[in-house]
Write a structure and sequence with these properties.
Blueprint (H helix, E strand, L loop, with lengths): L2 E3 L5 H11 L4 H6 L5 H17 L2 E4 L4 E6 L8 H33 L6 E8 L6 H16 L3 E5 L5 H6 L3 E6 L7 E6 L4
Amino acid sequence: MAVRHVLREDLAELEDVLMQAFADDPHLEWLYPDHGAARRSWFRVALEAGRRRGHTYRSTDGTGVAIWSPPGVNSLSRADGVALYEQMAESHGAAGTARLDTIAAARSTLHPTEPHFYLLTLGAATPGRGTGAELIAPVLRTCDEQAWPAYLESSSPRNVTFYERQGFVAVHEIVVDGGPPLLGMWRAPVR
């Protein structure tokens, strides 16, 4: 399978892929329990932000996508955050925006300060077929060639062994008040 950069015309298709890939994700179930517009908005904003940063890859067969931000670059802009909050407020009211605040606070306290590539989202519509490994391979090669570490937050325990096979190690648990924990994972460059 081959991978390529995400283009603007890919976004709607990839929103559907991510909706399918994360249909039963514990973290997103807590954050966006209705599987509706707010969850789709999260994927739309993340895909567009990743596309602008130039490190978002899709499988050529359209079954998966990986969204990265490079060292020193925030995954989402202030405008992206405003869009997410507005959609959450419209869909879930104050309870929904409180969940966004809770997760943002929990993640920010433990997010590494050392420059690194950050894997914001990785999703495959049909997991277990090697799509995920192929999708993250371009950035992991760059990390190894240029001596950059990589970081991610696994939202599902079932994904941890996959990330370990890619060289990531668990470094901390992110406790989310009222929600499921995330697992922060770090990958040192391989030389």
